[in-house]
Design goal:
Radius of gyration: 21 Å
CATH superfamily of the largest domain: GntR ligand-binding domain-like
Number of helices: 11
Strand content: under 5%
Structural class: mainly alpha
Distance between the termini: 70 Å
Order of helices and strands: HEHHEEHHHHHHHH
Number of strands: 3
Strand order of the largest sheet: 1-3-2
Shape: globular
CATH architecture of the largest domain: Up-down Bundle
């Protein structure tokens, strides 16, 4: 066997491309909370067969980006209660978890994945690349969570990771939110480098406060956009037509 021959780089699979397209559209609010996603109509819009759409939807559902409703899927609508409950849990768990992760650092090599993610997020923020920033942000959080010594705590965080991923997709399409997130990541990383567990917990708390603020702003803007659409003359005419049928 000739070991000098390198494997060919395969293009992204069609299901993967559909997945990223739908996830990006959720992130930039072209697909909004409450909007239904059906396999047949999506396949027609994307000019692909139903199989890659089905695979992409299943992946999005497993990550908490969409939920099953009837015979299709829907982007979940977050209420004020949803936001409060999610962040109450995050404020309770994540500062403690990140503090314990700092205490578990064995060597500088443990911080390498976090450093790499910070570099990726910095480059993505400068170029305005939402998808790349989202991936780097996920790698960063996965990196520090991998250091948590308490396996039960880690599993507890895993239980709501889909919800958190959805929140990131929803908010990080905003350039100001990405900048704030990057700043929070750097502060957390700095505390890890100093082996300062207390500083890491404080940095995480501030990071979550900023994330919650941007989420609330994002949800409010989505609601305003929806109300504006309903008040447009063409939308009113469409509703009148539907009533007359």
């Amino acid at each position: 066997m000739n070991t000098s021959i390198k494997p060919l780089e395969r293009p992204a699979g069609l299901a993967d491309r559909v997945y990223h397209q739908l996830r990006d559209n959720i992130g930039n609010h072209r697909i909004r909370p409450g909007e239904r996603l059906q396999e047949v109509s999506l396949a027609a819009q994307l000019a692909v067969s139903r199989t890659p759409v089905r695979e992409a939807l299943a992946r999005l559902e497993s990550e908490g980006m969409i939920i099953v409703e009837g015979r299709g899927f829907v982007v979940p609508e977050l209420t004020d209660t949803d936001i409060e409950e999610i962040y109450q849990l995050r404020f309770l768990l994540e500062p403690t978890a990140v503090s314990s992760a700092v205490a578990a650092i064995g060597s500088a090599a443990d911080l390498a994945p976090m450093s790499s993610a910070i570099q990726g997020a910095t480059a993505a923020e400068k170029s305005g690349d939402f998808r790349a920033f989202l991936e780097a942000n996920s790698r960063f959080h996965n990196a520090w969570r991998a250091l948590i010594p308490n396996r039960r705590m880690s599993k507890l965080l895993d239980q709501y990771v889909g919800h958190v991923r959805f929140l990131r997709v929803l908010t990080l399409g905003n350039a100001a939110a990405r900048k704030a997130a990057l700043n929070g990541m750097k502060n957390i990383h700095g505390a890890f480098r100093k082996r300062d567990a207390e500083a890491a917990a404080m940095a995480m708390h501030k990071h979550l406060q900023a994330a919650k603020r941007f989420l609330i702003d994002t949800i409010e803007q989505i609601h305003k956009d929806k109300q504006a659409e309903r008040s447009r003359p063409e939308a009113q005419a469409s509703r009148m037509t539907e009533k007359s049928i």
